[in-house]
Amino acid sequence: MRQYLPIKKFEWPWSRRDNGQNEFSPLIPKSGAAKVEDEEIGHVDSEYQTGTPSNQDRSSPTRIRPHYSYSLMDYFLKYFLFLCNLVFTVLGLVVLGLGIWGLSSKESFAQEKIGTIGTDPMLILLTLGFLLTLLCLTGCVGALRENCCLLKMFSVIVLVLITIQVLFAIVAYTVQDQIEGYLRSGMLAAMAGYQDDLDLRFITDEIQLGLQCCGADTYRDWEVNIYYNCSAPGVLACGVPATCCVDPLENGTVWNSQCGVGAQVMDEFTAQSVIFLGGCLGGISRWIEQHEGLIGTVGVVVVGIQILAVFIATRLLENIHRHKAHA
Description:
Distance between the termini: 84 Å
């Protein structure tokens, strides 16, 4: 015997009722729970479609980072610092080359002279050239590559140099009465090694020719040299170098290296027609007094350039950090 399933009465969606309300009719107001459910569904759909953040995300403010770009002045300062350091790097290499050439030409690296290389004046040029090249190369590469580490290193070293220079100027001003004694000792030491050290001879000759002087305080100071001492057996005994002579050129063309022979035994009236009587310490003091304005101006300009370099490097560092923050 066949069994038939009961036929369920078909109902249209809008004919369904819940608590006396039509659930799906768009015209009839919905119940509270259905209304909240539809609002949540609609809110999720709208977020999915438009990509708007949820309520939690919308509660936190969204920061819009402004686009930052370098100004023309920033580019100018960058390449100005680069070019200045490049110029001083080349200058440092020249000084370094002169120091190496001076040491090599005197064979200071030879085994028998390597022990006295620490007192060689050319070592000062070599050290100065190396430090100047290293410092300026740091600033040059740091500015060009916008390397914060190199720029910070450059700024710190320049600040230390400025501090040292200012302290040196203050100390020199406070002990200026003792400086003359140090210069006298240095001058006498250079005169004592005049024949044995080519550098000391060159420096002494340039001072005596440039300032037209002889000896430290007087021409008789050359007695400290074993070759010009009156007890020396050679022809130079009781004499002075040719750079002390008033007219060291014979007939205006030939250098007369014997023009100062026997000058120490002459009285001042006779010697004044042959050699310069005044010492070089007095000549140095007079030169400083005549050019003290120029010396002060050069000192201020040098310190000012260093301060400007620190300022530009600091400004460039700020621009680099600001650019990275907005990148």
